[in-house]
């Protein structure tokens, strides 16, 4: 049966109270957040950066970002009100430069071209229409802005066991996309310079990164497009 957003709402309503104490904070979420921040620092240094965290949960990542990059502005969106409520004190402590909004990843409540970075950690497998979410992430990025997408890596036997068997047994028919699948989704949405890295041993995760199309004058054609354009007749 196809996964539906109501399943995510039910699961995270239940989980919201104990979420911050979960062992996954140490095993998976913390390492994923640190890997993403390293990429933000790589691209933007400590410049003022506008960051959107999709599926932000209780705001743990936003807090870490503001601790390391105090000039960043962080918006969070999450489908589940109870998860946002679980992070209320955390968001409040961050003051005016960080704010959470209840929204679906498939309909981001922002105009086009406003963020330097869209981050999405450990949430993507819950999206029933992943291609719509990626298209939305692309829409809200500035030209040249970066998408950082992290989810469980299921392309090796251990990852398949954890995510496709154990996690799916608990969460239902969620979809941890393969590395190939993630690349295809980003390509289709118009991301360029897509690259991927696998992190973690016990709970391996895949960080897929892409840049929103830069203005046409700065664009380097993809190899297969250049070959197609050069082909006779
Ligand atoms: C495992 S938690 C991860 C939270 C946070 N990103 C982190 O790394 O700690 C997954 C989050 O995704 C949210 N979520 C699930 N489906 C969503 C959707 N369609 N749109 C926005 N958020 C969603 C859930 O409510 C939950 O807070």
Concise description?
The chain is of the alpha/beta class and 233 residues long. Helix content is 42%, strand content 22%. It is built from nine helices and seven strands; from the N terminus they run ααβαβααββαβααββα.
Bound molecules: S-adenosylmethionine
Second rung of CATH, namely the architecture: 3-Layer(aba) Sandwich
Overall shape: globular
Strand content: 15-25%
Name of the level-1 CATH class: Alpha Beta
Topology-level CATH name: Rossmann fold
Radius of gyration: 18 Å
Q: Which bin fits the share of residues in helices?
A: 40-55%
**Which structural class fits the helix and strand makeup?**
alpha/beta
Q: Tell me about the largest β-sheet.
A: 7 strands, mixed
Tell me the CATH superfamily.
Answer: Vaccinia Virus protein VP39
Mean pLDDT equals: 92
Q: Enumerate how many helices there are, as a single number.
A: 9
* Strand neighbour order, sheet with most strands: 3-2-1-4-5-7-6
The count of DSSP E runs of length 2 or more, i.e. the number of strands, is: 7
Number of domains: 1
The helix-strand sequence is HHEHEHHEEHEHHEEH
Low-confidence runs of at least 5 consecutive residues: none
């Amino acid at each position: 049966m196809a996964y539906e957003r109501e399943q995510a709402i039910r699961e995270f309503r239940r989980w919201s109270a104990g979420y911050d104490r979960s062992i996954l904070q140490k095993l998976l979420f913390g390492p994923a957040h640190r890997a993403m921040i390293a990429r933000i620092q790589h691209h933007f240094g400590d410049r003022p950066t506008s960051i959107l965290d999709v599926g932000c949960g209780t705001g743990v990542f936003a807090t870490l970002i503001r601790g390391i990059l105090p000039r960043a502005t962080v918006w969070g969106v999450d489908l589940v009100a109870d998860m946002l409520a679980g992070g209320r004190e955390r968001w409040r402590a961050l003051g005016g430069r960080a704010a959470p909004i209840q929204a679906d990843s498939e309909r981001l409540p922002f105009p086009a071209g406003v963020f330097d970075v869209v981050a999405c950690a450990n949430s993507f497998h819950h999206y029933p229409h992943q291609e719509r979410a990626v298209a939305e992430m692309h829409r809200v990025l500035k030209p040249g802005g970066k998408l950082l997408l992290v989810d469980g890596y299921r392309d090796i036997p251990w990852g398949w066991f954890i995510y496709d068997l154990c996690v799916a047994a608990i969460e239902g028919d969620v979809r941890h996309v393969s590395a190939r699948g993630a690349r295809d989704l980003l390509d289709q949405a118009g991301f360029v310079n897509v690259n991927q890295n696998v992190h973690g041993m016990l709970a391996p995760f895949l960080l897929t990164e892409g840049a929103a199309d830069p203005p046409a004058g700065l664009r380097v054609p993809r190899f297969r497009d250049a070959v197609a354009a050069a082909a006779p007749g």
